[in-house]
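Researcher: Here's a chain I'd like modeled. Treat it as a single chain, no partners, no ligands.
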Amino acid sequence: MGHLTARDAYKNLEDRINWFVQGAPSSETWYKILQVLYTEKEAKWVAMLPVRPFTLKRAAKIWGTTEAKAEKLLDRLCEKALMVDSYYKGQRRFVMPPPMAGFLEFALMRTRGDIDQKYLSELYYQYMNVEEDFVKELFFSVETPQGRVFVQEPVLTNDKTNHILDYERATHIIEDAKYIGVGTCYCRHRMYHAGHPCEIDAPWDVCLTFNNVARSLAENGEYTRLISKEEAMDVLERSYASNLVQIGENVREHPAFICNCCGCCCEALQAARKFSPMQPVATTNYMPKVHSDKCVGCGKCAKVCPILAIAMEEGQTEDNSKKHPVIDSEICLGCGVCARNCPTKAIELERRPVQIITPVNSTHRFVVQAIEKGTLQNLIFDNQAFANHRAMAAVFGTILRLPPLKQALASKQFKSVYLDKLLSMYDNKMV
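Model: Modeled as a single isolated chain. Structure tokens:
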């Protein structure tokens, strides 16, 4: 009977996690991962919580316990990075981080002795690199990606620098952040324990988190170390020097993280290689252009491309004996690693003719992704998480700014007379 109870607790947790726009397909490996990260009691209680932020008072009411006991359990969950806390008008709030970027990564962002990190890494490898259903769900289940690539600013020429927008610059994200944390690269840590160490021996201490996420992870379990803006700029420079790709949260305002990724360990870059030409992350607004008169055919650009988007081919030049790089524009990330490594400066980044659209903030992205996936009702009716006017206004405000087609999809999914009337009133005002 106890065994069945434990299984049910983790199954309920699994179902709750799948209320996120980003889900986690069920498998025996996934069940084992949850067992490592959560005790049976934690699984049972977390499965009852809202996906959206909630207060201590709300948790205590859901659990039917005192606020003192609820706070003790929530503190423990924060210490294990299974919850992230924040403060709004002096009141502490909590939220479940999604699987990625979230609690799966946090578990390996520092060395810890309360779990077997080698065993966990082996489970991660099985779940993500062998079974692959989670990776496909994570990167290809919606049109709007979870992450986006930042261009390597040092390779931009002066005229290109003048046209780059603030949210496209990793340096601006650093300059704008209230808190900055640096932690161990989860990807390289995982692959090391799984027996597949980084092929380019890239640095590990380059995982950047920002603002409240950085503060919470630093204060509750030292998963990150709070650093200055100058130290963060140094992290960026070291990552550039190691030919790492900067991938951050796909929002314009206050992204929670920027990872510095290698093609051999990062799930996103691995997915770009395996499932080409499908794109797992949003590209930059730049594309490399090769100036054949400067190119010497050394092939270094092809060697350093993290997703193998460059091939060296013969012919089509004045000197047909010389190989030249051919860039696959369908899969190119526009990161600039190739341009940085070109010894003759034959590669230049140019703005793409069609600009990549980036969601304004996390609420905007969540709503758009929920509409694309057909799960908007989960976001709206998440255990009364949107029962207050502020939260409802945020969701509906985002919906009202969407294109008409996505508004129609939202209305169909919500099946709400209220939303239909709201959209109708908005349309009438626009006439």
